[in-house]
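User: Fold this, then the next.

Assistant: Folding the first:
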Amino acid sequence: MHERVAEDAPGTAIAYLLLGVAGGLGLDLCAKGLLAIYPLEQFVFLRSFVGMFIFLVLAKQFGGFASLVTRRWPWHVLRTLLACGAMFGFFYGLSRLPLMETLTLGFTAPLIVTALSRPMLGENVGWRRWLAVSIGFVGVSVTLRPDISGISTASIACLFGAFCYACLAITARKLGSSESSYALSVYVVFGPMLIAAVMLGQGTWVTPDATGWLLFVAAGSCSVIAWIGIIGGYRRAAPAMLAPFEYTSLVGGALAGYLIWNEIPDRWTILGATLIIASGLFVAYREIGVRRLPRGPGQPHPPALPAAPRQHR
């Protein structure tokens, strides 16, 4: 199953994307509450188990189980390992950092993709986009506020998760012409579920109460909603057009962090987020500009800007 991007339905695409953003934010809120009580590996396992169950139920809507057939197992094994890094890194950071700070660091992933596109994909990245990436990483430094005590392990874990997601986005580009989006998503849920199950074998399981079970089911359901929304949006419109709407999750994260956990972002987090968002929007703007340039005979469109970080979900 190979999908075409239909660029004639911007309203529907934005609606799908905002649904995905809401699902992703719902997952993050459930995760932050659960990770205060339950171990990380248990959260990854149950979130993935619920999500996997829903994926299997919806298989027919995405081409059926035949769309999972692949001959490129080494790539899927690599993507499974990257998905583990993205999931464990992001959610470890989420369990120890304020919600908005975690989301801000997670949004470095599109900038990392741009930086890696040249060495890993051979794509041309002009000096303006390199400048935007550099400013974005200045924003990361501002958000981290490194001092003589060093950078926290949680912050490093978030950045590692963002790096793993960026590599997932790049491998998705490489496999996009031969693999279905269903296969690209299901395998990266199944792999972390197995690895988390092995880790749970060490005796770290904590039996959830009724509220815990409800939140675990909600987390898995929200992850599927995020997947359907993001894929549905990016199948209907150019990623560069939709990218700005991804940043609405930062606004939602800031409000939720304040209302639920009484978290108030400090000025450095706000400044860092502003620099990262501005850099990401400029990269999207340059992507639109490059796509509008006249092309010579036989020249393809440049690759689309990847979606913001959702693969960890």
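Now the next one, as you asked:
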Amino acid sequence: MPEKNSDSENPKLDKNSDSPTEKEVQTKLDNDFAKSLFPLIQEYKQKLEVCEDKLQRALADYQNLEKRNESEIQKRVLQKTNQLMLYFIGIYEDFVRAKNALTSDKVNSEGLDGIIKNMEMLLSENNVKPIEAIGEIFDPRLHEAVSTVEDNSLDEGTITNEVAKGYISFQEVLRPSKVIVSKKSE
């Protein structure tokens, strides 16, 4: 008669055995896998920090580039506007000379008065102002000396006469005033 297998004889059924159960083996494998992931996670955290730093730097560089481009565009627009205003000033002065010539010939110049007034308004709207020169001390940034005259009654470098009007816009000289400057006699 065959012998009956007892639970202790069958290792699969032996509950008191030292061998781990399938669940314990899986838990150990899961723990080992998780532990092996920690260095990998740390490595990727460092890579992420480097990427975030590079992104922040790239963003700052882009913002600086945008500001620089905007500044350069504004500068170029101002330069072109000033060139246009300088050309316009020439036309404006031609109208003023024409009005003066007509007035000295006793010809009616009322039509020119309106045009000149509109031109002056356009210059004013673009912040173009004439440089005050007569009676001022010579400033090479604003004035161009075309001649000197001896005059002991005035301080050295006083502007006595203006040959051609100068103009300034937003602290930038469009055209310096051409002036005659006093000097002390020796």
